[in-house]
Design brief:
2 domains; 3 helices
Length: 126
Amino acid sequence: MNNLSIAAITNYLVTDGVNLVIKLAACIAIWMVGRQIISVLMGIIKRAIVRGGKIDATTTRYITSILSVLLTVGLVLGIFGYLGVQTTSFAALIAGAGLAIGALGRLASTLRGRLIYAGSPAVQGR
């Protein structure tokens, strides 16, 4: 075989296996602490929005939900970076999705405006 002896496998598991287990344990700890921090931040942000009194409850839930998802995605990307996974492709994918959603909203607004313009002819003096 390709130099796969029991000694080589044991050596790999002892040296790199221990490092992998330590990294995975650290990632679990980072995840748990990060989720607690995100939870506390969401509570602070929600109280600040409610204290202002100018935003209704539905909008408050919407804002805190979006912020929670964004912070969780950032946490996951940070954990992947800690493990050594290249996260630039993930960041590019997220940026591309944001650009597509923004372009879709702009296109929808433009088409609505054209429908209003085409649907009601302008008559001067009436």
